[in-house]
Amino acid sequence: MWYDAFSEVGALLLGCAAMLASVNTHLKKNLLVTKLVINREGEFAMSGGHA
Predict the structure, then answer these.
(1) Residue 43 DSSP SS3
(2) Is residue 51 part of a domain?
(3) Which of 7, 10, 41, 47 is most buried, judged by most C-beta within 10 A?
C-alpha cells in the first residue's frame, strides 16, 4: 500500500517536473523571440507597444 502511494506521488512529481521543463523551454524561446522583435522594432517596443 505504501509503495503504491509512493509510486503515484513519484509519477505526479515526474509529470510536474516534465511540464515545468517544457514551460521553461517555451518561455526561453519566447524571450529570444521577444528580444529579436525588440531589437528589430526598438522604437515600437520602447513606446509601450508591447503589452
Answers:
(1) helix
(2) no
(3) 41
pTM of the model: 0.48
Domain that includes residue 17, residue range: 2-46
Give the model's pLDDT for residue 27.
Answer: 87
CA 42 to chain centre: 24
Domain count, the chain: 1
Q: Is 45 exposed, middle or buried (0-12, 13-18, 19+ CB in 10 A)?
A: middle
How far is residue 51's CA from residue 34's CA, in Å, rounded to a whole number? 11
- Tell me the C-alpha distance between 17 and 24, whole Å: 10
Q: Is 20 part of a structural domain of the chain?
A: yes
Q: What are phi and psi of 6, to 5 degrees?
A: -65, -45
